[in-house]
Amino acid sequence: MNIALIIIIVIAVILAIFGGLNSALSWLLWVALIVGVIALIVFLFRVISGSRRT
Asked: To pair with 42 at 20 to 30 A between CA atoms, which of 15, 25, 31, 34?
């Protein structure tokens, strides 16, 4: 009985860790996409403003 309880607890902890990692990775993916879009806008702004100066 104790071994089965320990196995269930270990499985629950592993699933909780993977669920937390999945949530963290999803959040980091959204942050990376937002930062990438901002970098692209800044790059395009520099290219456009640079071509107007010449």
From this structure: 25
Model pLDDT for residues 21-54, shown as the tens digit of each residue: 888 888 888 899 899 899 989 888 888 887 655 5
Cα-Cα-Cα-Cα dihedral sign, residues 34, 35, 38, 40: negative
Q: What does the block give as tokens for 15?
A: 């699933």
Where in the chain are the domains? 1-53
Question: Residue written as tokens 């499985």?
Answer: 11
CA dihedral 46, 48, 52, 54 (to 10 degrees): 60
